[in-house]
Specification:
Length: 440
């Protein structure tokens, strides 16, 4: 028998050869066992990650698919738990049922003060180890990091930042009306709105839904009273601020804006209002930067076809809406490892760029390369950093970031009632909002 590579060894004969082969086989066997253990160990740390979310259309669904790829690249199995509709309301109903039954998903899309409410129930996992390893405290503004924590511990991973206090404008309409630039104050705005109205066009595109009313309202309060007043009135819910002369002025301004909307406004979806600005049927819209996706889809270019600017009086402030994923307590070690990898991936530069390019928002992670983003996003990123330094970075009450859901809902209803019923006086509107803010 000829064995290449060993036939010339002098000891390889008869019994000695048998002994040598035996030693070789034993060594190979031990090596194979060691490799198998390493492979098995790696596989053991790969787990299934079930993720509940309501991103089921367009760029959002595409972005979720990218996160799935990242997790699969780390060896984990992705189980999609998508619940469409209701802006997350349907998803929360399903989530509560799962948690109560003792079968929570690995992660769920939850944001704002609702995070703290879930954490208080003792069902959320502690993400401090991942946050420390990934240096989240250095990569997030303090006001955003605080929302992601409960009693000083990270319980959620932030995905993005939407700026809410945007004003969108059709450049051609402004040119036709003789308006040379985006108004920076409310008096300037009403002067521009009068010019647009005189030109025979709708000045303000608005959809008559309560959250749209509330979105406009918070920008009016911020532009009228400034960051400190906004914080006192709409975050701390201070009764003195809520019943002040500044709040009265805010409601007077809010009601005046309604006079520049069209009669078909009630019940209109936000994207149809955005379409009015895109088509040149209206001049302005007050809406978060998800509206930018509509302009992009229509092939419009910022600066050339449309203007993105902070709502009047709010250029030194920034109301934010941050999407985030909370991680639920799981017993299985492999599932816990998958959770940690998911949290790290969400805050990673790859996903932060892909997701936010698709969604129209900006990365929540600081010091990101913004080369691929448009001018509106670059302005948003710049203001995000600068307002954080001066106390102007503020959670949006209209989008679930500032107060508990019960108070938010009550104030939202009071604001919409005022908007829709001209018989409610400004004084009564102030009282109604202040009373709603006391809702527990």
């Amino acid at each position: 028998m000829v064995l290449t590579g060993v036939q010339r060894r002098p000891e390889f004969c008869f019994g000695a050869g048998t002994q040598y082969l035996g030693d070789m086989m034993l060594k190979l066997s031990k090596l194979a066992t060691a490799v198998a253990l390493v492979v098995a160990g790696s596989a053991a740390m790969a787990g299934e990650v079930e993720v509940l979310h309501w991103w089921t259309s367009g760029g959002e669904a595409k972005s979720v698919g990218e996160l799935k790829k990242i997790m699969q690249g780390k060896g984990h199995t992705w189980k999609d738990f998508a619940v469409a509709g209701g802006g997350g309301d349907n998803a929360m109903t399903v989530l509560k049922s799962r948690v109560v039954s003792g079968n929570p998903p690995a992660a769920a899309q939850i944001k704002g003060p609702a995070l703290q409410e879930w954490a208080a129930e003792g069902v959320l996992a502690n993400l401090d180890a991942t946050a420390k390893a990934e240096k989240w405290d250095e990569l997030l503004p303090g006001v955003v990091a605080d929302v992601m924590k409960y009693k000083g511990n990270y319980i959620a991973a932030p995905v993005n930042v939407h700026r809410v206090n945007w004003m969108w404008a059709n450049k051609a309409v402004l040119d036709k009306a003789g308006v040379k630039s985006a108004p920076k104050s409310w008096p300037e705005f009403f002067k521009a709105a009068d010019a647009v109205k005189k030109a025979g066009l709708v000045a303000v595109a608005h959809g008559g839904q309560n959250w749209q009313d509330f979105t406009t309202f918070e920008s009016v309060v911020l532009g009228t009273g400034g960051a400190k007043f906004y914080q006192d009135a709409l975050i701390k819910l201070d009764q003195k601020a809520l019943t002040s002369a500044t709040m009265t002025k805010s409601l007077e301004t809010f009601r005046k804006i309604k006079g520049y909307t069209d009669a078909a406004s009630p019940g209109r979806d936000w994207n149809l209002a955005t379409a009015m600005v895109i088509k040149g049927d209206a001049a302005f819209q007050f809406m978060g930067d998800w509206a930018k996706g509509e302009f992009a889809a229509a092939g419009k270019v910022p600066g050339k076809d449309y203007i993105c600017a902070a709502a009047p009086g709010t250029d030194k402030a920034y109301t934010f809406n941050v999407d985030s994923f909370a991680m639920f307590k799981l017993k299985d070690a492999t599932a816990q490892k998958a959770q940690a990898d998911l949290a790290a991936s969400i805050m990673g530069t790859e996903f932060q760029e892909i997701f936010n390019l698709n969604k129209g928002s900006i990365p929540v992670r600081l010091k990101m390369d913004m080369a691929k983003f448009d001018d509106c996003a670059k302005l948003s990123a710049k203001d995000f950093v600068e307002t954080a330094k001066i106390g102007g970075l503020l959670p949006s009450i209209a989008h679930g970031m500032a107060v508990k859901p019960a108070a938010e809902g009550a104030i939202k209803d009071a604001v919409s009632q005022f908007w829709n019923d001209d018989k409610i006086t400004v004084a009564q509107g102030v009282k109604n909002i202040a009373k709603a803010a006391a809702t527990k």
